[in-house]
Amino acid sequence: MNSGKLWELKSNLMKKKITLFMVTTLLLCYSCIKPIKEGDKIITVPVYGQSLALGEEANLVTDFDGLEEKYNHRIRTENLDENFGYFSNTIFKQQVKHWVHDHRRTFEVSCYGMAEYIVSEWKETPSDNNLIFCTFPEGQGSSGIDAFEKGTSSYKKLMKEIRNAYDVAKDNGCAFIVPAFCWLQGENDLVWNTGSDYKRKLIRLRNDFEKEVKEITHQKEDVKCILYQTSCLSISEDTFKMNEYDCRQTIVPQAQMELVRDDKYFVASGPTYPYSTEREYVHLDGVSQKKMGYLEGISLSKLLKNKKHSGLIPKQTIVHNDTIIISFNIPCPPIVLDTIEVAKVNGYGFSVITPNNQNILKNVLLRNDQIYLVCSETPRKAKVRYAVNGTYWKCGNKQGSRGNLRDSQGDFYKCNIKNKTYRIDNWCYMFDCICSDQ
Question: Is the pTM for the entire model greater than 0.85?
Answer without folding.
Answer: yes
